[in-house]
């Protein structure tokens, strides 16, 4: 999202440049600023923006809006140099490895070495057929507004100025096997801008004919429905963090043996679903000097955390002996004597219920095997209770028996060592 802020400002600069009259003696500064911001964000935050820089640069160069010596080279060099001067010293300090350029390291590991596929592979058309429709949410934007903006002579040129480089970026990035919607989030403001041009064309003509009036009403209805859908999806998406839920439970309920040191291990799924540095619990205040702590200072901590991913180390029984608590997706992979203390459930899909079909429990009661008596007041349980109450209010009276049920399944187990 840091990169998203820069890419959005770059798009704003580009639109301002498009609105500035072109002349052979005065080059709009907006083009140079656009490429500078995208390059800087790519160097510091997200390496995939290099492809977006390439598509915009190529399009602007082909359409003769920019030249290599006057805009491309100065903007690219400035963005790269400033970005490297910012990221290399700071990240090298925090990682205690010099010189370190994190985005190049991630790009080399995921793209050059091809390890991104280890996180899952999606078909080539995933972004166009799945990710973009879900990100846009309102189907009127891409089924009605964008086509009208392109077909309409008054808005066609500026719409294509955005659509061609944006969709080219999505198409090129689709060749990478591993796909996630966050990799293409930068294109949404541009697509929304084009859709807004089409929507404005319809709305300003709503009094001219019955067709425009009906289309305008459909736009208003689609906005209201999209708002309702996004609110529901917000609640559902909050159920995607069982790792954070399990870690919160750990810190809230491990009260016995206070004063001792605990070693905690997180597996991949836990780290992907809510476990962050912000949820870690340490004794005493934390500062940026923690990266330089001595072993003596570290020994005074109440909690220590580990998220080793090396497959060979995970197969070593001695590796697991040093941990007191493990957050794991698959307990059978954790070597040693362990007991399941807590199970965090997560979202696993939805099911459409027909009239007369009974709904089940959206959240299976969270299983607490040990420690203290636990009343389920977790966030998933609260969402489930709210969803059940909403079902009672709206299913029969408004939706005539139809309903959408949230399905949950066990995601992260909190395991306790037998020696604890």
TrEMBL record:
Pathway: Protein modification; protein glycosylation. The keyword Transmembrane helix applies. Coiled coil: none annotated. InterPro entries: GPI_mannosylTrfase. It is found in: Endoplasmic reticulum membrane. Keywords: Endoplasmic reticulum, Glycosyltransferase, Membrane, Transferase, Transmembrane, Transmembrane helix. One of its GO terms (molecular function) is dol-P-Man:Man(7)GlcNAc(2)-PP-Dol alpha-1,6-mannosyltransferase activity. This is Mannosyltransferase. It comes from Massarina eburnea CBS 473.64. The lineage of its organism: Eukaryota, Fungi, Dikarya, Ascomycota, Pezizomycotina.
